[in-house]
């Protein structure tokens, strides 16, 4: 929401149409904490329930308001609790079904770490030069392991055994296949030809297999995720994986993000 066009898109969401609906917001609202609060308060007024997990951009440190990204994460938690924005598992009833919704806090494993989603890419350069998180994300110490810390924050309540449908969601991707639209052999030469950022390898920062392990433990029927700025809706090993991102205005103009022009996506 750092772009004016994105805020205009947000303002066009009806204040009446979704009063009985649930919005799942899978992170990357803005790094600006004041703007973050205004946007989520506005969304909360338009929906019966608003579920949220932070993305990497939400935890960027710019200025002196927070010592590190974990401190900012705690501030986001506190704000959401006070604003009745849900960041914990909840069992809802739509009159026909009991629906369990489980936010999974997460981060990404780098290519040298166990759990990475890394796939080699021709012509890729050193990630540190191309990825802003190395400049704007700050952890309490060098021993802090963000993936393990965040993923373990979420536990499935025992009451969810009654659920007819379980939806989990995370900001980051849970498995390599979710980077692609279908099961196919990866054509690295095609990737090299059509990739607009040939030096950047997204898979180095895509997510973690620990997210996949968690959603399988929770017996998810649907998993929602963000981060990639490419929209997907596919079934893998019995779970439906959905990504429906707004992305950047330029991404929408050049057609790399499709589907959002039709508005919000109903998945339940």
From TrEMBL:
What GO MF annotations does this protein's record show?
A: hydrolase activity
Calcineurin-like phosphoesterase domain residues are 6-230
Name the SUPFAM superfamilies on file: Metallo-dependent phosphatases (SSF56300)
Q: Return the InterPro entries for the record.
A: Calcineurin-like_PHP, Metallo-depent_PP-like, Pantetheine_PDE
Which protein, by its recorded name, is this?
Calcineurin-like phosphoesterase
């Amino acid at each position: 929401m750092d772009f004016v066009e994105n805020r205009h898109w947000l303002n066009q969401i009806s204040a009446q149409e979704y009063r009985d609906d649930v919005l799942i917001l899978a992170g990357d609202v803005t790094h600006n904490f004041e703007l973050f609060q205004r946007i989520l308060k506005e969304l909360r007024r338009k929906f019966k329930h608003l579920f949220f997990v932070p993305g990497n951009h939400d935890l960027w440190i710019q200025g002196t308001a927070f010592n590190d990204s974990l401190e900012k994460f705690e501030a986001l938690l506190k704000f959401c609790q006070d604003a009745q924005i849900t960041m914990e598992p909840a069992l809802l009833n739509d009159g026909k079904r009991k629906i369990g919704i489980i936010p999974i806090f997460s981060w990404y494993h780098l290519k040298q770490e166990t759990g990475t989603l890394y796939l080699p890419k021709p012509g890729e350069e050193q990630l540190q030069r191309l990825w802003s998180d190395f400049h704007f994300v700050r952890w309490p110490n060098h021993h802090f392991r963000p993936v393990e810390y965040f993923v373990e924050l979420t536990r499935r309540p025992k009451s969810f055994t009654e659920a007819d449908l379980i939806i989990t969601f995370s900001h980051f991707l849970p498995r390599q296949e979710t980077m692609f639209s279908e099961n196919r052999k990866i054509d690295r030469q095609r990737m090299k030809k059509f990739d607009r950022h040939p030096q950047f390898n997204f898979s180095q920062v895509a997510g973690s297999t620990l997210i996949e392990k968690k959603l399988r433990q929770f017996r998810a029927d649907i998993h929602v995720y963000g981060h990639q700025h490419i929209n997907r809706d596919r079934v893998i090993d019995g779970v439906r994986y959905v990504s429906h991102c707004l992305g950047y205005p330029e991404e929408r103009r050049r057609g790399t993000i499709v589907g959002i022009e039709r508005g919000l996506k109903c998945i339940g």
